[in-house]
Amino acid sequence: MARRKKIYEGKAKILYEGPEPGTFVQYFKDDATAFNAQKKDVIEGKGVLNNRLSEFFMQGLTNIGVPNHFIRRINMREQLIRQVEIIPLEVIVRNFAAGSLSKRLGMEEGTALPRPIVEYSYKNDALGDPMVSEEYVVAFGWANQQDLDDIVSLALRVNDFLSGVFYAVGIKLVDFKIEVGRIWDGDFMRLIVADEISPDSCRLWDVKSGRKLDKDVFRRDLGDLADAYSEVARRLGVLPAQTTHLTKPTLIN
Ligand code: C5P
Question: Is 102 inside a domain boundary?
């Protein structure tokens, strides 16, 4: 069998050449990293859960008309996606103070923000993904002002959708990160949601208990990460109700 061509390997995913032009295969690894890969581990089952959860969110976005890269699931760890030209920004939306915002401003985690705040980090591992302003984004040519308007609009639509989906299962969406890519239809360019949406890239707190159900469990040594992600998947109906990750993820189609 011919080996697939690896296009790119990141910390949590690998991209392979897809079966048709304009597609990639996105493979979800079990690797967990934090603090720019200074902390690393392998969490059995994480890749399977994130593959399925990202599919769930991307399909939901498709259903409400928010364009994104997802085409179809291939297997437990792989999905077919549209090839995009990634804009080198992490687009972060915050509803409540947490993480780097709390640190930067000395604001208690969980404080409600006056409105959703959209911010950008420049995607660069060597520099530790520094926060950048719109001025930087436009001046350095990563995106123009029209692109930024479209990115904010996409990010806020994703925020409204995800906040509602999570709240319906008793989870508060504190903040999250998306990436945005360009696709071309002839000379016409469109921006679409790319990369992944999963508990790796969101902060998710149980509404009642405040229990953390996201990658902060790993970052802050708060318990079993796969357990937390399984709980999210179970509540969303992506995993059968009685399953724990110890029985290994069994997915519902
Ligand atoms: O660390 P910080 O508070 O800036 O993170 C904000 C949100 O963006 C969190 O949900 C975090 O998981 C996500 N994020 C990410 N990848 C990064 C940085 C942040 O998914 N490289």
Answer: yes
